[in-house]
Design brief:
Chain A has 16 helices and 26 strands. With 583 residues, chain A is of the alpha+beta class. In chain A, helix 11 packs across helix 13, helix 12 (480-497) runs antiparallel to helix 13 and helix 13 runs parallel beside helix 16 (561-579). In chain A, 54% of the residues are buried. In chain B, strand 5 and strand 6 form a beta hairpin. The chains are: A alpha+beta (583), B alpha/beta (467). The complex binds adenosine-5'-triphosphate and magnesium ion. Magnesium ion is lined by residues 235-236, 258, 326 of chain A.
C-alpha cells in the first residue's frame, strides 16, 4: 500500500507503489477517490485523480486495485445513465440523494436483476471468442447476444437455460483440461479497441430525420462526422435529434463536460418519446453518459472511452450503433489540464502534442466491421462529435485536428443561429464524403436524388454569389430571372432546410418526404420559369397560392406527403396552362 | 468563514520565495487548496493558499501584493480546513464581505452547519428539468428569451450600459405565474464599485426585499483573492436556502468579468501555461462548477436560478470571458450599444440573446399556446427587416420594393414598440404577445408561415376597415 507524496490539482504522486502497473486504478485517501496511474518512476506512481482532490493531505493512503480502467459489459447497460467512469448515476441518486459525494461508488450493472437466458449452442459445441452462445431480452428493442469473451475458446461443457444475474454462471467452458465459468457479464479495458474480423467501408444511409443531413450531407453507417459551432448554434440540439430519431439499433449519448439541465432534459424526454419506427420508448435503445462540466475534469477524459467501449460491445453483437459526443472540445481540455500538470511540452494553445493522435484514436473506433465469432455478422459504429471552438474560430487546434479525421462536416453558422434559422448548418461550408456511398440507397427510394441534390446545392451557391450584388444594387434592380432564383432559394432555405426540432410534425422527416419537398420546390422553379418566359413577373408568381402551400409542407405528416405533393404538382401544372393563353 | 483561534500547524523554514509563491518545508497536515495565514517578518498577516503540497515542500500562493523580501522570513500557519460558510435561515437580511465575515454590524447567528463553499455537484440524473416560467414583465425577455426557474442566464453588457437597471427591474417584477412562494435573493458583488453595490442594496430596500436578501460584497478595493470566494459563498448561501429551506433563490452575481480577471491574475502568478489571451485553460471548468450549481432536483422543493452580469471587454462577444460563459450558461441576454444610442430601453439585442430553457417554460398552460410560434415569427420578420435595413443604407430605402418597405418599417416598430418599454413598466406575457400580433398584422398574411393557421385565426387582429 502506498501513500500520497504530492498533490497538485488532479495530479497526485504516490510513494511506495512498487509493483503497480501503468493504467492501474488506485483508491486514494480516506474517501477512496478513484485515480488512474499514468506513469511510474522507481517506486513512485504518477496518478491522475478522476475526482476532486481538494483537502487531500500528504501521507494519506493510496491503494492499488490491480485492475485497469475497464467497462462492465452485459445486460442492463441499455437505458442506464452513467458518469464518466461508468458509475450508475441512478443508483447513486437512490443511495445518497441528489448530490454526488466524493469517493462514492456504484456498479455499472445491477447485481440483483435476473435475466432470462436462452442458449443457442449446446454442450459439446466448440466455441471461441465472439461466438454467440445465447440471448437475453435486454429491453423491448434490444436482444442482448451473449458472446464468449474475446480471447477464450474451448468446448461447452455445460450451458444453462434460465434466469440468472450477471454474476451467476450460465455456462462452463473446457479448454485443455481447464474449466472456466461464463457469465452474462464481462469486462473490457476501455482504452483498448475491441478487435473484429475485418473492416468494411461505411455503407447505407444513417437516417436521421433531418433533411439537411439525410438529403444534402448524408451520414453513412460506420461513418465519422463532426459538428463544430460557437456557443448556442445548435450542437447539442443536433446531437439530441440524432440520438432521438436515428434509425440505428442503439444510440449512445456521451455528455462530456456539458450542462446538467440539458442532460436532465434528454433523460426526461427519452422516457416519454417514442421511436417513430417501432413505437417503443426511446430509452429502450439508448445509453447515456453524463459527465457534466461541474463533475471531475479527468473523468471527462475517460467518459469518451467508456462510451465507445460499450458501443463496440453492441457492435460485436451485430448491431448498428450511433455514438454522439458532446463536446469533444471539453474532452480535449481535460487532456490539456492533465498535460499542463505533468509539465509536458505543450503544443498549440497549450494542448498536448498528442491531441491529434488521441482524437483519431477515438474516431478510428467508428466503422463498419465484420464481427468476430459465429454466426457471421456485420455491425457498425457511427460517431458524431461536437466541437466547441473558442470564439467560434475554426482555426483552433481541436477543430483543425478533427477536420483531418472526419468525413462529414456539419458546420454551424453563428449568423444563421442568431436569425433563428435552425438547424444552423451552413449549406455552403458543410460537406459529406458519403454522398457517393449512399447514392445507391437513395436512388432506390428516390430516383433522381443525386441530380436534385446537386441542383439544390448549386442554386444555393448561386444565391450566395448574387447576394453580393444585391448588397450593392438592391433586390429590385436585379433581372427577373435572378429575382426568381432568389425566391426559389429562399424557399429551399426556409421551406426545406429550416427544420425546427420542436415542431411536432417536422421534428422527424422521413427521407421520402424530404425528397418530395425539395422536388416540389424544384418543380415550382420550372413552372415559374415557364411563366416568366410567358411574360409574367416574379411579383405575380410569388403571389400564387401555391407558394404559401409549399411553405406549409412541413406541417404535413410523413405519410400524407405523397398525396400532398401530387396535389401541389397538379396545381402548379394548372397554373402554367391557365396562364398560357394570356401571353 | 469559520474563525478558528487555534492554528493546527506552523511551517518550518521558508526555502524559497518567488513572486507571490512561497516554497516552505513540508507542513504536515496541510490540505490541498487549504487557505492558510502567512505571517510576514514585519508581523503583518496575509492569506494564502496551498496550491501544491508534497512530502518535500508546501507551495503557498500569497495574496495581496507582497514582495519576495517580505516573504523571506515569513511563517505559514494552517488550520487543516478548507473554506466553509456557516449557514442558517438567518442568513437572510445579512451582509457579508468576500470572505464571509459579516459587515453589517449585526451579531453573528448560530449556524445550522458549515458548508464547503465549493458545494457538491448535482447528480444529473436527479435534476428536475426546469420548466416554470418566470414572468419578468420585460417583453424582450419574456416573449423571446424566457427565463425559467433553475436556469442560469447571464447578462452580457458593456461599460455604461444599463445592466444594473435591467437586473433591478427583473428583481422588482419577477414572479412565477399564478404562484406566491418563498423566495430569496442572493447578491454576490465581485470587485464592483461602491456605487454599484449600493445601487442594488438601495433598490432591494425600496422594494422591501432586503429582508429576503443575503449579500456578499467584495468591492474594487478589497483583496483580489476574495473575488474567487465571493461568488462561491453566494452560491453556498443560495444552496442552503434552496435545499434546506425550500426557497426559490435568484442569485445575482456582478461583475463576473472581475472574477475572471482575478482568476487570470492568480494563474499568471502561479506561472501556469495560459490559454487564450492569458486566461487559464481551466477557466471553462472553473466557471462551470459555479454556474452548474443552478437548477432544481426531484427530492427538494426549492430552486437556484443564477443571473450573472458581465461586461464584455471592448464589447467583444468573442472575448474569452463572454465566450466561455456562453458555452456554460443556458443562453444569454446581450445588451447593445447601438440600441442604447437609439434611446431604446432595455437595449436588448435579441439576435445575440438566447434562452435555451425557454421551450420548456412556455406554451399552453404555462404562458399561452401561440407563444412559440410568435417567438419564431417575430425573429423571422425582424431578421428580414434588419437585413433590408443594412441593404438600404447603401442603396437607399426608396429603391426597395413595396413588400420590402413593409418589413423595413416593421423592424423599427418592433424596436420601438416591442423591445422598448419603461423601466417601471411591467407587461404581462399576454400583453407582450399581443404587441407582437399587432406588429404581424402589418405584414402580408401569407408570410406568417411559422404560425399555426388556427392561431392566426384566433389572435391576428382583424384588419381595420380603413386599410
Ligand atoms: N434544430 C433546432 N430547432 C429548433 N431550435 C434549435 C435547433 N437547434 C438549436 N436550436 C435553438 O438553439 C439553442 C441553442 O442550441 P444548442 O444548445 O444545441 O447550442 P450548442 O451549440 O450546443 O451550444 P453550446 O456550445 O453552448 O452548448 C437551443 O436552445 C434552441 O433554442
Ligand atoms: Mg451544447
Amino acid at each position: 500500500m502506498g501513500k500520497i507524496w504530492r498533490v497538485s490539482g488532479p495530479l497526485i504522486v504516490a510513494d511506495d507503489m512498487r509493483g503497480s502497473q501503468v493504467y492501474e486504478i488506485v483508491h486514494i485517501g480516506e474517501e477512496g477517490i478513484v485515480g488512474e496511474i499514468i506513469g511510474l518512476e522507481e517506486d513512485k506512481a504518477i496518478v491522475q485523480a478522476h475526482e476532486d482532490t481538494l483537502g487531500l493531505k500528504v501521507g494519506e493512503v493510496v491503494e492499488g486495485t490491480g485492475k485497469i480502467l475497464s467497462a462492465e459489459l452485459g445486460p442492463g447497460l441499455v437505458g442506464s445513465i452513467y458518469d464518466g467512469l461508468q458509475k450508475s448515476l441512478l443508483a447513486m441518486a437512490e443511495d445518497m440523494g441528489s448530490f454526488l459525494k466524493r469517493g462514492a461508488r456504484a456498479l455499472a450493472l445491477p447485481r440483483d436483476t435476473k435475466w432470462q437466458f436462452t442458449p443457442v449452442v449446446k454442450a459439446g459445441d466448440m466455441v471461441s471468442g465472439g461466438d454467440i452462445i445465447g440471448t437475453v431480452p435486454e429491453t423491448e428493442l434490444i436482444e442482448h447476444r451473449v458472446m464468449v469473451p474475446l480471447g477464450m475458446r474451448g468446448k461447452i461443457k455445460e450451458i444453462r437455460e434460465g434466469s440468472y444475474t450477471v454474476e451467476e454462471t450460465i455456462a462452463l467452458l473446457e479448454d485443455g483440461g481447464e474449466v472456466r465459468e461464463l457469465r452474462l457479464m464481462q469486462e473490457w479495458p476501455v482504452r483498448k479497441p475491441r478487435p473484429y474480423k475485418q473492416r468494411h467501408d461505411p455503407s447505407g444511409l444513417l437516417t436521421t430525420g433531418m433533411r439537411i443531413l439525410d438529403y444534402m450531407f448524408p451520414l453513412a453507417l460506420g461513418g465519422k462526422a463532426a459538428i463544430p459551432g460557437g456557443f448556442g448554434t445548435g450542437k447539442t440540439v443536433t446531437m439530441q435529434q440524432l440520438v432521438r430519431w436515428a434509425q440505428t439499433d442503439l444510440n449512445i449519448y456521451v455528455g462530456c463536460g456539458e450542462r446538467g439541465n440539458e442532460m436532465a432534459d434528454v433523460l426526461y424526454s427519452f422516457r416519454q418519446l417514442k421511436d417513430p419506427n417501432t413505437g417503443k420508448l426511446l430509452k429502450e435503445k439508448e445509453i447515456f453518459i453524463a459527465n457534466t462540466s461541474n463533475m471531475p475534469v479527468v473523468a471527462r477524459e475517460a467518459s469518451i472511452f467508456v462510451g465507445v467501449t460499450m458501443a463496440e460491445y453492441y457492435r460485436d453483437m451485430g448491431y448498428d450503433i450511433l455514438l454522439v459526443a458532446d463536446s469533444t472540445s471539453r474532452w480535449a481540455e481535460a487532456m490539456r489540464e492533465m498535460g499542463g500538470r505533468l509539465e509536458e511540452m505543450p503544443g498549440e494553445e497549450g494542448f498536448p502534442s498528442y491531441l491529434g493522435s488521441r482524437l483519431s484514436s477515438f474516431y478510428e473506433r467508428a466503422g463498419m466491421v465484420e464481427c468476430l465469432g459465429s454466426p457471421g455478422r456485420k455491425g457498425s459504429i457511427t460517431i458524431a462529435g461536437a466541437v466547441s471552438p473558442p470564439g467560434a474560430d475554426f482555426s483552433e487546434p481541436v477543430t483543425q485536428n478533427t477536420l483531418r479525421i472526419v468525413d462529414a462536416l456539419y458546420s454551424l453558422d453563428v449568423s444563421l443561429a442568431n436569425k433563428r434559422h435552425f438547424p444552423a448548418i451552413s449549406w455552403l461550408m458543410s460537406y459529406s464524403l458519403y454522398a457517393d456511398t449512399v447514392s445507391a440507397w437513395w436512388e432506390k427510394l428516390d430516383p433522381g436524388w443525386a441530380e436534385t441534390r446537386m441542383a439544390g446545392l448549386k442554386l444555393l451557391q448561386q444565391e450566395a454569389e448574387l447576394e453580393e450584388i444585391v448588397r450593392l444594387v438592391g433586390p429590385e434592380a436585379l433581372p427577373e430571372g435572378d429575382k426568381l432564383l432568389l425566391l426559389v432559394t429562399r424557399m429551399i432555405r426556409e421551406d426545406f432546410l429550416q427544420q425546427s426540432a420542436y415542431h411536432e410534425v417536422d421534428t422527424y422527416c422521413v427521407p421520402v418526404k424530404a425528397g418530395l419537398m425539395l422536388k416540389t420546390i424544384m418543380k415550382f422553379y420550372d413552372m415559374a420559369t415557364e411563366m416568366l418566359n410567358a411574360g409574367k413577373s416574379v411579383a405575380e408568381v410569388r403571389s400564387l397560392p401555391v407558394v404559401y402551400k409549399i411553405s406549409r409542407m412541413k406541417d404535413v405528416p410523413n405519410d400524407k406527403m405523397p398525396a400532398k405533393a401530387k396535389e401541389l404538382w397538379v396545381e402548379m401544372e394548372k397554373a402554367v396552362t391557365t396562364d398560357k393563353p394570356v401571353s | 468563514m469559520e474563525v478558528s483561534s487555534l492554528y493546527v500547524k506552523e511551517s518550518g523554514a521558508i526555502k524559497r520565495a518567488k513572486g507571490s509563491l512561497l516554497v516552505a518545508e513540508s507542513i504536515p497536515g496541510v490540505k490541498f487548496n487549504e487557505v492558510v495565514d502567512v505571517r510576514l517578518a514585519n508581523g503583518e498577516i496575509k492569506s494564502g493558499q496551498a496550491i501544491d503540497i508534497s512530502a518535500e515542500a508546501t507551495v503557498v500562493q500569497v495574496f495581496g501584493g507582497v514582495s519576495e523580501v517580505d516573504l523571506a522570513d515569513s511563517k505559514i500557519r494552517c488550520k487543516g480546513e478548507t473554506l466553509k460558510l456557516p449557514v442558517s435561515g438567518d442568513l437572510l437580511g445579512r451582509i457579508f464581505n468576500g470572505m464571509g465575515k459579516p459587515i453589517d454590524g449585526v451579531p453573528a447567528f448560530v449556524p445550522e452547519g458549515y458548508m464547503d463553499i465549493n458545494g457538491e455537484p448535482m447528480n444529473p440524473a436527479s435534476r428536475r428539468p426546469p420548466s416554470e416560467f418566470i414572468e419578468t414583465g420585460i417583453s424582450a425577455i419574456d416573449g423571446l428569451n424566457a427565463l425559467v426557474r433553475g436556469q442560469k442566464l447571464p447578462i452580457f453588457s458593456g461599460s455604461g450600459l444599463p445592466h444594473n437597471q435591467i437586473v433591478a427591474q427583473v428583481i422588482r417584477q419577477a414572479a412565477v405565474k399564478g404562484k406566491a412562494e418563498k423566495f430569496a435573493i442572493v447578491l454576490g458583488a465581485i470587485g464592483v464599485s461602491y456605487d454599484d453595490a449600493s445601487f442594488f442594496m438601495k433598490n432591494l430596500e425600496e422594494t422591501g426585499a432586503l429582508e429576503r436578501t443575503v449579500a456578499f460584497i467584495n468591492t474594487a478595493s478589497d483583496p483580489v483573492i476574495e473575488r474567487i470566494s465571493t461568488p462561491r459563498l453566494a452560491l453556498t448561501a443560495a444552496e442552503h436556502l434552496a435545499w434546506q429551506h425550500g426557497m426559490h433563490v435568484l442569485v445575482i452575481l456582478t461583475d463576473m468579468t472581475n472574477y475572471c480577471e482575478a482568476l487570470r491574475e492568480l494563474s499568471s502568478m502561479r506561472e501556469e501555461i495560459p490559454s487564450r489571451r492569458g486566461y487559464p485553460g481551466y477557466m471553462y471548468t472553473d466557471l462551470a462548477t459555479m454556474y452548474e450549481r443552478a437548477g432544481r432536483v426531484f427530492d427538494k422543493e426549492g430552486s437556484v436560478t443564477i443571473m450573472p452580469i458581465l461586461t464584455m471587454p471592448d464589447d467583444d462577444i468573442t472575448h474569452p470571458i463572454p465566450d466561455l460563459t456562453g458555452y456554460i450558461t443556458e443562453g444569454q441576454v446581450v445588451l447593445s450599444r447601438n440600441l442604447e444610442r437609439k434611446g431604446i430601453y432595455p437595449p436588448i439585442d435579441v439576435f445575440l440573446s438566447l434562452s435555451r430553457m425557454m421551450k420548456e417554460g412556455i406554451g399552453e398552460g404555462k404562458t399561452r399556446e401561440d407563444h412559440n410560434n410568435v417567438f419564431m415569427q417575430s425573429y423571422a420578420a425582424y431578421a428580414e427587416g434588419c437585413y433590408l435595413r443594412e441593404i438600404s443604407t447603401i442603396i437607399g430605402a426608396e429603391s426597395l420594393g413595396e413588400r420590402d418597405k413593409v418589413y423595413l418599417a416593421n423592424a423599427s416598430d418592433f424596436e420601438s414598440k416591442f423591445i422598448a418599454q419603461g423601466e417601471f413598466e411591467k407587461r404581462t406575457v399576454e400583453e407582450t404577445l399581443d404587441i407582437a400580433w399587432k406588429l404581424f398584422s402589418a405584414l402580408p398574411k401569407e408570410d406568417l408561415k411559422l404560425i399555426k393557421e388556427e392561431f392566426i385565426e384566433r389572435y391576428l387582429p382583424k384588419q381595420e376597415a380603413s386599410s
